[in-house]
Amino acid sequence: MTPYSLLFNGVFRRMDPERAHELAFGAISWAGRVPVLRDVVQGALAPYLGRGHGGPGSTEVLGRTVPAPFGLAGGFDKNARAIRGLTMLGFGFVEIGTVTPRPQPGNPRPRMWRELDVRGVRNRMGFNNDGAAAAAGRLRELRATAAGRAVVVGANIGKNKTTPPEQAAEDYAACARELAPWADYLVVNVSSPNTPGLRDLQTTAELRPILTAARAAADEATTAAGERRVPLLVKIAPDLADADVDAVADLVTELGLDGVVAVNTTIGHDRGPGGLSGPPLLSRGLQVVSRLRERLGPAPVIIGVGGIAGADDVRAYLRAGADLTQGYTSFIYSGPMWPSRVNRALTRTRGSVAAGSIAGSAG
Question: Which sites are catalytic (predicted)?
Answer without folding.
Answer: 192 (nucleophile)
